[in-house]
Amino acid sequence: MLPLNESISQIEIYKSLFDHNHDACYALDLEGNFILFNNAAVKITGYSKEEILQMSFIPLVKEECLEKTIKIFDDILQGNSSKFNASIKHKNGHMIDLYITAAPIYIDNKITGIVGTARDITEKNNIEKLLSGQNAVLEMIAKGYPISRIFESIIQLVEEVSDGGKCAILVENDKKLYLGSAPNLPQPYTDMLNGVPIGPMEGSCGSAAYFKRPTFVSDIKNDPLWDHYRDIALENGLRSCWSSPVCDNQNGVLGVFAIYHDKPCVPADEHIQLIEKATHLTSLVIQHYRSEEKINFLAFHDELTKLPNRRFFNNKVNEAIKNKKNGKNEMLGLMFLDLDRFKLINDSLGHSVGDFLLKDVAQRITSCVRDQDLASRQGGDEFTILVHDINQMEAGIIAKRILEELSKPYCINGHEVYITPSIGISLYPLDGSNADELLRKADAAMYQAKKEGRNSYQFYQAEMDKKTYDRLELENELRKALDKNEFTLHYQPIINLSTNKVAGVEALIRWAHPRLGYVPPNRFIPIAEETGMIVSIGEWVLQTAIRQLKQMQSDGLLLSMISINISFRQFYQPNLINIVNQILEESGVDPNRITIEITESMTMDVESASTILHDLKKLGVKISIDDFGTGYSSLSYLKKFPIDYLKIDQSFIRDISKSNYDKNIAMTIILMAQNLGVGVIAEGVETAEQLEFLKLNNCTEAQGYLFSKPLSEKDLKQFLTESS
Ligand code: C2E
Ligand code: MG
Ligand code: MG
Q1: Does the pLDDT at position 233 exceed 60?
Q2: Residue range 467-471: mean pLDDT, rounded
């Protein structure tokens, strides 16, 4: 037994060892709550002693390490001691790797807790990770991996050790910076980044390359370097950007390496070292590939589809024009191709499906053109094609071939997806004298093709410029039409062919503009669709039709059913079911009296369409497929859909008495409907002869001018009164 003052000094020694240790020292009670914590531990974790003494170790430990740590601590409470690695969360969120020792605390021979030390080994770990990553990158260069994959590896390596930073590698070409890789930055931002000029005020990257020195902007929000790019950076959640120029051995700029964070932050010493290492590695890669000229591929090609990009394409068109001027007199054809409704696929099925589709489309386009021709991606879902030495007829044949090839189904992640393109064509020297002009005109022709019903091609014609103007004007007026109350609904009676009674009515929207006059739905619905205005217009239609149905019922009129058209975009809007449900509930109308009309083309994504239709069906409404026979010939999906009616498209009814083909189609649709056990409605019935044919073939219902034109609410009331 030591004398009293000696045992006190021994306690002092232990206390000093604990308090002044360079390593973090801690003690826990039996429940795992902190009871002691030295200054080094405060420094490592960021928590004050007061804070930590209110906590247990559990919230501190990184989730992935928690189970292991609890097990080890349990073991220590059985009398063992241990040393192990684990990661913890610093108070401000970043991760720290620790080497931890732990031993039981004995008081009167009883275990009362755990005491131990912890050493910060984050930097050591990071250096090890970096070294082994660096070796892996060098090996990739040696093995000739594609440059984009090597860039991705460098980025992955840096992101792993950089506390939530997201990296970009940009490559210099012709005084601009092009995207080498930035797998984890938001796409709208990287789209903008691709092609930023090198200059004194061009964000962190452009100016780092310009001044050839690292440029660390700790807060984009108020740094003048970011004046041109601030909004898009902030919109995409980027708040700080540390850029470092990538130079070759002669101090020529090859590109830029950048790390972004979502909060304002200043790089610490270890971050600066990290950026230096990454920049050096990137420089090795670019120099190696530049010497092999592979880098050119990157600046001139689209990363996703590997097709030439817009710059390359424009150069080639101008080159071809120059050659033409020096001799040969055949024409050049320039095609502008845009995928119909691609955005909806992207929105409803996700970007990875969209990307997959674009790659497939690129391959199909390439397979349709000759080796000497050139297909490129302009961006988004737009492609351009340069065709050498052709006349108008040949250009038409190629366009048709592309339409056919692209309209075949795409199988992506188990989804069967259909998409159609629209193509505009301009010809040199007829339509323009340079690449820009020819492209603009092919674009205008493409617009016209879309208007004419998609999945078609059009040649440029001078009046298209006027049409583009008209369309813009219409779009402008359409934006105001809802607020100005310019829409009304008309109703066309649908007749039951066995009883000759009104089975229901179809609601059809009408737009009377004070200056433009009556604008037919086929003109403004596609614009409403493209601009997204259809969502609010469609909601207005649903609300108005159901309200007026209710009104007519309470006026004592016999109207059992109202049929409402839903457009493509409305159908795929995420809250369609809620909206329909809400309108139904508010009105108190029996859902059974409402039929929703969709068109065949909306069912291109069979799985999603089927889910939406079943959800609609659960609300109690009926479903009708409009313009049937004009869409895809695949009928297998019909069985998957809970439908109540097929509507034979009026184009088949029109020529029923003249064309055997149309007769056969109409008969086939009627038979098919019978087999499926659903009703069949003929549209556009104008003559007694057509009606006779339909009755003979057991068509159940019909609508058309023969019975009645679409009527205003007032005229419909009269019609219903007279026919009852
Ligand atoms: P739809 O749904 O196939 O409507 C039938 C169209 O045929 C209507 O044209 C109607 O007026 C017309 N029609 C009816 N009977 C005859 C006939 O005997 N002969 C001929 N030649 N035509 C007849 P409308 O009203 O111009 O509508 C055109 C298209 O616009 C509709 O085709 C529908 O796809 C769309 N639409 C109309 N109203 C709405 C709406 O409220 N919402 C949505 N999303 N689309 C609508
Ligand atoms: Mg319809
Ligand atoms: Mg129709």
Answers
A1: yes
A2: 72
In the chain, what percentage of residues exceed pLDDT 70?
Answer: 95
Rounded to whole angstroms, how far apart are CA atoms 471 and 464?
10
Nearest CA to ligand 1 atom 7: 684
Residue 88: CB partners within 8 Å, gap ≥ 6? 45, 60, 61, 62, 65, 95, 96, 98
Which residue CA neighbors atom 16 of ligand 1 most closely? 684
DSSP state at residue 308 = B
List, as ranges, residues with CB under 5 A of the ion ligand 3: 626-627, 683
CA of 693 to the centre of ligand 2 (A): 22
Between CA 166 and CA 184 the distance in angstroms is 6
Nearest atom in ligand 1 to 566's CA: 44
Write the DSSP string, 19-78.
Answer: HT-SSEEEEEETTSBEEEE-HHHHHHH---HHHHTT-BSGGGB-HHHHHHHHHHHHHHTT
DSSP run (H or E) holding 103: strand 95-107
Q: What are phi and psi of 190, to 5 degrees?
A: -70, -30
Q: Which two tokens stand for residue 637?
A: 């999906």
Q: How far is the CA of 565 from the centre of ligand 2 (A)?
A: 5
Helical pair 463-481 and 521-531, crossing angle rounded to 10 deg: 80
Question: For residue range 317-336, what is the model confidence (pLDDT) as tens digits?
Answer: 988 888 877 665 679 999 99
| Predicted confidence (pLDDT) at residue 103 exceeds the cutoff of 80 | yes
- Residue 457: C-alpha distances to residues 400, 422, 518 (Å): 7, 6, 28
| Helical ranges in 631-707 per DSSP H | 650-654, 660-676, 688-696
How many CA atoms within 13 Å lie on the side-chain side of 339? 28
Distance from the alpha carbon of residue 343 to the mean position of ligand 1, in angstroms:
25
Tell me whether strands 240-247 and 110-120 are parallel, antiparallel or unpaired: unpaired
Mean pLDDT to the nearest integer, 703-724: 94
Q: pLDDT band at 493, cuts 50/70/90?
A: very high
CA 497–ligand 3 middle distance (angstroms): 18
* C-alpha span between 421 and 444 (Å, rounded): 15
With H, G, I as helix, E, B as strand and everything else as coil, classify residue 622.
Answer: strand
Round to whole Å and give the CA distance between 19 and 610. Answer: 68
Cis peptide before 574 (omega within 30 of 0): no
Q: What is the pLDDT of residue 496?
A: 97
How far is Cα 648 from Cα 671, in angstroms, rounded to an integer?
A: 12
What percentage of the chain's residues is helix, strand, coil (to nearest 5)?
50, 25, 30
Angle at 723 between CA 722 and CA 724, to 5 degrees: 95
Of all ligands present, the nearest one to the C-alpha of 508 is 1
CA pair distance 182, 535, nearest whole angstrom = 35
Closest ligand 1 atom to 647 CA? 3
User: What spacing in Å lies between the alpha carbon of 668 and ligand 2's midpoint?
Assistant: 20
Q: What is the pLDDT of residue 127?
A: 75
Rounded Cα distance between 282 and 134, Å, is 10
Element housing 388 (H / E): strand 382-390
**How far is ligand 3, taken at its centre, from the CA of residue 673, in Å?**
16
**Mean pLDDT for the stretch of residues 176-183:** 89
Burial of 143 (0-12, 13-18, 19+ CB in 10 A): exposed
- Between 241 and 412, name the one with better pLDDT: 241
Residues 6+ positions from 608 with CB-CB distance below 8 Å = 348, 349, 415, 572
28 contact partners, CB below 8 Å, separation of at least 6: 34, 35, 56, 57, 73, 113, 114, 115
pTM of the model: 0.51
- Ligand 1 site residues (CB inside 6 A) read 492, 507-509, 520-522, 525, 538, 541, 565-567, 597, 626-627, 650, 683-686, 703-705, 710
What is residue 294's predicted lDDT score, i.e. its pLDDT?
46
Backbone phi, then psi, for 183, in 5-degree steps? -65, -25
